Amino acid sequence: MTDMPNSRDRDLRRRAEAVIPGGMYGHQSVGLLPEDYPQYFASGEGAHLTDVDGRRYLDLMCAYGPNLFGYANPQIDAAYVRQLEKGDALTGPGPAMVELAEAFVAMVTHADWAMFCKNGTDATSMAMVTARAHTKRKTLVLAKGAYHGAAPWCTPRPTGTTAEDKANQVHCVYNDIASLEAAVAKAGDDIAAIFAAPFRHDAFIDQAAPDPAYARRARELADQTGALLVVDDVRGGLRVARDCSWSKLGVQPDLSTWGKCIANGHPISALLGNDKCRAAAASIYVTGSFWYAGAAMAASLETLKLVRETDYLERIEALGDKLRDGLAERAQAAGFGFRQTGPVTMPLFLFDDDRDLRKGFCWSSAMLERGVYVHPWHNMFLCAAMTEADIDAALDAAEGAFKVLKREAPTLGPVEKLAFLAG
Amino acid sequence: MTDMPNSRDRDLRRRAEAVIPGGMYGHQSVGLLPEDYPQYFASGEGAHLTDVDGRRYLDLMCAYGPNLFGYANPQIDAAYVRQLEKGDALTGPGPAMVELAEAFVAMVTHADWAMFCKNGTDATSMAMVTARAHTKRKTLVLAKGAYHGAAPWCTPRPTGTTAEDKANQVHCVYNDIASLEAAVAKAGDDIAAIFAAPFRHDAFIDQAAPDPAYARRARELADQTGALLVVDDVRGGLRVARDCSWSKLGVQPDLSTWGKCIANGHPISALLGNDKCRAAAASIYVTGSFWYAGAAMAASLETLKLVRETDYLERIEALGDKLRDGLAERAQAAGFGFRQTGPVTMPLFLFDDDRDLRKGFCWSSAMLERGVYVHPWHNMFLCAAMTEADIDAALDAAEGAFKVLKREAPTLGPVEKLAFLAG
């Protein structure tokens, strides 16, 4: 142990270097974050995280989405533990599986049925297989750069995958109707599905609300061609609506995929579908060792109860508005072009004229130092455990962070690890 | 509610018909089991299950593997709950991830590193991608009929998948050296990996121990061609050895995959590898929303502690021997050809002259009626919560069940739903 403020984090990273390839993997790696970001956390409570060196943060990442009602939410975790004591992974499911399917079908307009799995990628992969089984065709229409999971067919990094893994895919530009029409035309009579994120939430670029005309056109094209329309709500689900996110646009998909926060961080994801593709969903073989485990289902039932019975969404929207307005004001006062995009409940912040994110890194580090965990290039997530006081604290931190940035901006060097963004 | 003894199960199935495609999906569906098998369970404790209609069983399926130290094991579940209270899915991993990687590396001879995921299929898919990244080649050599998961590249039912999903695969016959050599030759200079189950544990057929010469030849061929050798220990792991299962043969793979019981039913799986393929594993993009959650890691640490510090394996082997010997004796006394295959800790029972399993179904139903849950065509699993008294009870039940079969055998009709087996 040293006297460095992050000595426990450094020590864990050193140990991990020995027993985990590259020291860390996947979306929670801090490899592409500023150097001072902690990799390891000791605990979470409500809207706050404590890292292994004892520093506490207001967490605007919410575990990359799973935290919707607060870390260690007593009501949801109690439901988990009660079911754990009765039985979790058994030789068959328990009543909670049926109750949870009923709860989703009652809540989500387009859904006539539900299937449960563990990863978001399980749900999107099942949507793909269901669409191919239903249509007896192969081609998927996807938006360029959209994230639908980390299996070989959809992973953003092709290393170790084959051309065949991504065969039968045609890409379009999100929100560009002509491009969508061209992609559907290119898929021709082999089209199985049109996949869509509820809004554009790609990393490193401004988020974009869905153009209602684009959403309606996707629905029309699916109907005309017999393809299934899939809305991938793994990331956006329950932070945009108490229904599939595109229901706000009056567009109902055939399939929707859910995960992350549907059990407030307990491991479960879901594929929901309508009657049109019920037989196809019943015909595919998908499974997992822990897919029928009851505890996460009990936690999801409790989460959906809070979704139905509380004003959580209106509250996080109001907090998100307050955060967005307050940041805009402070950025303007400091003289920065500061773009806030995405739903206010899932914001992403980017500075103007900041291709390699040197300003974003500097500002984010200054926020971190002031006790607010923000992400410089991935959308963030608000949760219902946040309070007005938390947002005030974030805004105070931001005022200080903009000052730091103003002072340091003229001398900031390039962010080597993000050099690819400038290329 | 009716007075039928399975009225709650029937009621749940009726409700599920409405909101789950086909009423149920995946490996825990009772669709291919005798009609009297319950689909829904209320609770599990130690080696016993209680179904939703209150009937209690000695459970020889152990949740299809996850139950190794008893359902609701107090020590393991307490570790889970302690970590849950501190933090489960957070914005980064906790120290438990490093500790668990260290524990696996210390326990498994071939392993220099570990990566954690949720499904067994995640681990086998990561093995495939790692092997392709390491070799910069594509072709996998797999044994015909071996189960390595339910993703499009490996699912046993092709509905909704494409020819491209299973491209770059060559098949051999398990334990047949000439067939393995031919498959490797066919893969030629494109070979990326040789996959192997630790023993042949395909459904519907006799299990088979690995021929040590086959295992050694697989290792040699991998070394000669530069391919990686993968042992898929998701199902067999920790019930054959306190190490990778092939370590008993003196054969060390490059990669091994683990899941099911490594946290005694809590949701976590793992890919372990050696230094040869560390860089490749670090180069791939794989992730999941709940992969870094601490509670299942804490439960796995406690499970591995019990693996290291108790005689669980010797005890379940002794119980397995007692069960196998006792069943053989009773089957012979009743005049049945009754084949018991696989490790004694993971047995499968098949009757001679029973192509559509009509004898197996009759006997299994009679066991179920006598309070012992057996599976007529899938390997079973013993757990450390079983006692000699449990095995005695199973043997008493078997004696009765053989009598029932003897009486009913002459008039048994075909099992329509297994007609495909006779084809």
UniProtKB/TrEMBL annotation, chains A, B:
Q: Which InterPro entries match?
A: Aminotrans_3, Aminotrans_3_PPA_site, PyrdxlP-dep_Trfase, PyrdxlP-dep_Trfase_major, PyrdxlP-dep_Trfase_small
Which portions of this protein are annotated as coiled-coil regions?
Answer: none
Record EC number: 5.4.3.8
Q: Which UniProt keywords apply?
A: Isomerase, Pyridoxal phosphate
Tell me the cofactors it needs: pyridoxal 5'-phosphate
- Keyword Isomerase listed? The answer is yes
Q: Which family does it belong to?
A: Belongs to the class-III pyridoxal-phosphate-dependent aminotransferase family.
Protein name, UniProt field? Glutamate-1-semialdehyde 2,1-aminomutase
What does the organism's lineage look like at the top? Bacteria, Pseudomonadati, Pseudomonadota, Alphaproteobacteria, Caulobacterales
